[in-house]
Amino acid sequence: MKYNRRAAVVVAAAGIASFAAPVVAAGADPVPCQEITVPVVLGESPGWIAGTLCMPAGEATTRIQVLVPGLTYNRTYFDFPDPEYSYVQYMAQHGEATLAIDRLGTGQSWHPPSGRVTFAAHVSTVQQVIQAIRAGTIAPNVTSVVLVGHSYGSAVASAVASTPGLVDALIVTSTGHSWLANIALAASPVTMWPAAMERRFRGQGLDPGYLTTWPGLTVVIVPDSGHVLNLDRSRMIGWTAALTFLN
Q1: What SS3 state is found at 213?
Q2: Is it the case that residue 41 has pLDDT exceeding 50?
């Protein structure tokens, strides 16, 4: 299955989320999706969080799942090119709306100076996305928000959910009580190097605090079924700021 993913148009100063043209997955049960950007603020600096909003075809829903990926991933984690392993497609086929986001400093989202990409900043920007949903600027009929995290995204989601009344349910995956140790390993020089040193990221103004995985680390995934998925690393791997996420 191929997806027509287009880069989101950034309108950081707008008061509501900006929407690109609908994206529809090919197949027997197409799921209409839109690339969106949600304005956020860190201190007095405006920025944006990019995401993909997918609503069940032909169904009205009042609930949405906000999907927060792990440390070295962007939103593609939740919507693999093979629909058999797509969380987004599975949920849409069961009547669930989703908004998969790129965390601050990853994917198509805002890349402020790396020193500002802290755990607190991740929590704040996800909170602002959910507040925009609550305000009706993203999906007007939605009244219930389920927050879903993967790995480091689960730690962020747990902190976000600690705000009373912000989310209605929390789902955490691929995490545990010792998640800080796992994050420190994931961001170590054994697995990561400065993104600016990789050819595809050169010229993008990324400071040395932005990291990506070493070439070839996560190109191929072999699920239990024996299928092999060759994934484009430029879509799959996000950036994160070195050390600052522990602040």
Answers
A1: strand
A2: yes
Q: Which residues, 6 or more positions from 91, have their beta carbon under 8 angstroms from its beta carbon?
A: 65, 97, 98
Residue 10 above 50 pLDDT? no
Q: Looking at residue 9, what is its pLDDT?
A: 25
Number of domains observed in the structure of the chain: 1
117: in domain: yes
* pTM (2 d.p.): 0.77
Domain containing residue 83: CATH number:
3.40.50
pLDDT above 50 for 227:
no
Give residues with Cβ within 8 angstroms of 207, minimum separation 6: 113, 114, 196
Residue 9 lies in a domain: no
Q: Is the residue at 93 inside a domain?
A: yes
Identify any residues that bridge with 67 across adjacent strands, giving them in sequence order: 100, 148
Tell me: pLDDT of 233 over 50. Answer: no
Euclidean distance between CA atoms 45 and 40, whole angstroms: 9
What the block records as the tokens of 163 is 């705000």
Q: Which domain holds residue 75?
A: 18-246
Please give the C-alpha separations between residue 231 and each of 167, 198, 222, in angstroms, as whole numbers.
32, 17, 11
